[in-house]
Amino acid sequence: DAKTTQPTSMDCAEGRAANLPCNHSTISGNEYVYWYRQIHSQGPQYIIHGLKNNETNEMASLIITEDRKSSTLILPHATLRDTAVYYCIVRVAGTGGYQKVTFGTGTKLQVIP
Amino acid sequence: DSGVTQTPKHLITATGQRVTLRCSPRSGDLSVYWYQQSLDQGLQFLIQYYNGEERAKGNILERFSAQQFPDLHSELNLSSLELGDSALYFCASSPRDSHSYNEQFFGPGTRLTVL
Q: Of A34, A42, A95, B95, which cross-links A49 as Cys (Cβ 3.0–4.6 Å)?
């Protein structure tokens, strides 16, 4: 699986858009990009995933560069409840059920009032 | 609420002891995953089961073992416990053992403290 690189921490003002970057320069053509977040020792929560097209759901938007070597998770209007650790994961498809996943240490997002 | 339940919520035990952590996946989910998260560490994948069969192994110690039962609940057994085994243990489930990584639903975790 491709490795990912994320900043250790970021701050964002409440009400502003939070843009969380992730580098995955060794990503393969069949690897998806997934984002999860973990709020203070709770179980991680799925946010969004994509392959090569930009994706949007009720929680966030995912922008994947054309070369797929990086992506950005966008929380359009950050609230204090969005303070969490955000994990970017890339995962290959077609691996016969092999599901080993490395979450890494993620980006700690602090939303400031 | 993800629909995944884990018991107990907290567990305090002594070094050398053995404990069992239990996980009930979401209704209909066939895959169960176990993760360990030590203080200020990322999530470490331990093991995955699908419909009773082991499918993938991560950084799971030989002192640890797991199984998934016919009713699809899973247990993680930790033996000869050491201080370093103190951590949050998460269980996750997903609906299918597809060939692609799919959305996992995480339980609230079991906090294990080894004294």
A: A34
Is the Cβ of A53 closer than 8 Å to some Cβ of chain B? no
Mean pLDDT by 10 residues, chain A (113 residues): 86 97 89 90 90 92 95 96 94 52 85 96
**CA A44: distance to chain centroid?**
12
Considering only CB atoms, which chain A residues are within 8 Å of B45? 100-103
User: What are the angstrom distances between the C-alpha of B13 and each of B10, B19, B111, B113?
Assistant: 10, 8, 11, 6
Residue B84: phi and psi, rounded to 5, are -70, -10
Record: contact B55-A89, CB cut-off 8 A:
no
Does residue A82 sit in helix, strand or coil? helix
Residue type, A35: W
In the numeric block, the tokens 């053995």 are attached to B18
